[in-house]
Backbone:
């Protein structure tokens, strides 16, 4: 629905015309501007789309009323939501839309819009109430008393390392807020607020920096007070609950409190030994590789596993090494490997006995 467009003008009809006239005008124009008549003509396509948009709004009683309010064809008096509900029938005053309508026609449309407006108001009041966390109540006093906003929840995916160390994460949330344009009053300058469509509240996006504590467990919930939906009648805001989901990356696997991983080493590291850095759930830790390390050999990093929930005592990390050759060997490297093989006649398969 666009305020800058005059849907009545687009369909070439009067402001107070009835549905029959809307249908007739649309049918005639849609036939005239149908894209099949002028294939590939952008102007016709756009016009056809515009006609469809105008028709879809004007043929729908609720949308038409909203549009009329938006355009100022119908105005509403500023009042509280309760008054709006109780006095729906008096809540608007039809404005003379221009010179084209007679007093009699105006009177006729007044009756029509009266009912539509009642329904419309009922509908948005209902929507408004649906956002309250408490059960609906017919008690007027209770409706005006402060009520806490609804709690909202969001899911946060963290790595195993983040779960162990804690982390600061940016969390995007969608929550119900007071409309900043009408300040929740629903009405601006006698017409329905076009920012919130007269609801007084909008769905707003917010990014929060959230501190995730260390040693957080899978499926645990973190409460962030006051970041839920807005409270009603001055009531406090609801809370935000973050559901923690720990991503089991393919790098680590778990066996109780023990953490397993595989780490590649170079042929020279395997032969000569050395110190390498190994990722642990806490970050990187140093690990010594002894000379003549075999591929598949396992090393234990004591106390680098997951902490026990009660005692806090940590399991171990078991590291399996795998010798990895670089690809695209240079001529010089190939020469050196040839020299190595000349240095020692080594057959690692000589002990393998094949059964016939
Ligand atoms: Zn508003």
Residues:
């Amino acid at each position: 629905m666009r305020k800058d467009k005059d849907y009545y003008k687009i369909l070439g009809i009067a402001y107070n015309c009835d549905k029959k006239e809307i249908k007739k005008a649309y049918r005639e124009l849609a036939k005239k501007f149908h894209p099949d008549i002028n294939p590939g003509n952008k102007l016709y396509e756009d016009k056809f789309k515009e006609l469809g948009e105008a028709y879809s709004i004007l043929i729908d009683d609720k949308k038409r009323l909203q549009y009329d309010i938006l355009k100022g064809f119908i105005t509403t008096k500023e009042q509280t939501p309760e008054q709006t509900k109780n006095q729906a029938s008096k809540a608007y005053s039809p404005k003379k839309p221009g010179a084209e309508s007679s007093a009699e026609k105006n009177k006729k449309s007044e009756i029509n819009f009266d009912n539509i407006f009642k329904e419309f108001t009922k509908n948005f009041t209902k929507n408004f109430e649906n956002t309250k966390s408490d059960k609906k109540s017919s008690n007027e006093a209770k409706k005006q008393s402060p009520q806490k906003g609804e709690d909202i929840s969001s899911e946060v995916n963290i790595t195993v390392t983040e779960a162990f160390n804690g982390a600061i994460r940016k969390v995007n949330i969608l929550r119900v807020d007071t409309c900043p344009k009408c300040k929740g009053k629903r009405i601006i300058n006698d017409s329905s607020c076009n920012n919130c469509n007269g609801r007084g509240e909008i769905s707003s996006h917010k990014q929060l920096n959230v501190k995730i504590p260390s040693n957080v467990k899978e499926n645990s919930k973190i409460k962030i007070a006051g970041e839920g939906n807005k409270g009603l009648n001055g009531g406090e805001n609801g809370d935000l609950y973050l559901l923690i989901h720990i991503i089991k990356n393919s790098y680590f696997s778990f066996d109780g409190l023990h953490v397993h991983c595989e780490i590649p080493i170079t042929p020279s590291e395997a032969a000569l030994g050395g110190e390498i850095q190994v990722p642990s759930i806490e970050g990187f830790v140093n690990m010594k590789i002894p000379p003549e390390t075999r591929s598949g050999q396992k090393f234990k990093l004591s106390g680098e596993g997951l902490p026990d929930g009660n005692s806090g005592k940590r399991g171990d990390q078991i590291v399996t090494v795998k010798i990895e050759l670089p690809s695209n060997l240079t001529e010089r490297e190939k020469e050196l490997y040839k020299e190595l093989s000349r240095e020692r006649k080594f057959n690692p398969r000589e002990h393998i006995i094949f059964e016939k």
About this structure: DSSP finds ten helices and 15 strands in the chain. The two ends are 83 Å apart (CA to CA). The first helix runs from residue 7 to 11.
